[in-house]
Amino acid sequence: MRSATGYLKFGRDIMRHETVRKCLHMQIAFLPMIYRLCEPLAYALLAGGIVVYSLSEYVRVQCSRDLACTRVLFRWINSVTLFVSREGEKGTFMIAPLTLAFGAGLTMLIFDEKAFTIGIFALAFGDTAAALCGRLLPIHTLPYSNHKSWGGFLGCTIATAAAVFIVTGSPGKALVIGLAAAVLEAVPFTDYDNLIIPLGTAFLAGMLL
Fold this sequence. Notes:
Blueprint: H1 4-25, H2 31-37, H3 39-62, H4 67-72, H5 75-84, H6 96-110, H7 113-136, H8 150-168, H9 171-186, H10 193-208
Helix pairs in contact: 1-7, 2-3, 3-5, 3-6, 6-7, 6-10, 7-8, 7-9, 7-10, 8-9, 9-10
């Protein structure tokens, strides 16, 4: 049984790992800028990232007892994956980075530049704010949301609305899209919210803009 100090340290460790995980998650926000500079490069980076990460995860899961294998192949990626993995993920193939890449890629492929930029910003900043604010401010549990809190809902709304306002300059539309992104994030899709959030938010943005 953990002492109060032990629980505090445990909570700090989880928060540190979650913060690093979400900092990596936010790197997807660079994708619209890369797209504007060179569209083929944006798709190439996504495709290359999917291939390299999938291989690294296969090596990590299948060769977990063969240290030489994991050290020679994808050592840095494996160490980062293990550090940011949540409880229950260490021995399994972590699909969150893949759904992140596929969600961003599909959004970029389907929608126009402004709409997909908003969708990807909602994924990068709104989802990150929801995760971190939900842990820091566990203000009551949202109904039917698999233990997600109002703190995360508010964090997602504010972060997404701020990002959308930068893109559109419209506070009203920014607030509507921010609320929609928070509703999508609150639905208990687990890792598949990386697909739902950008696609759903970009769809709404395309209708409003």
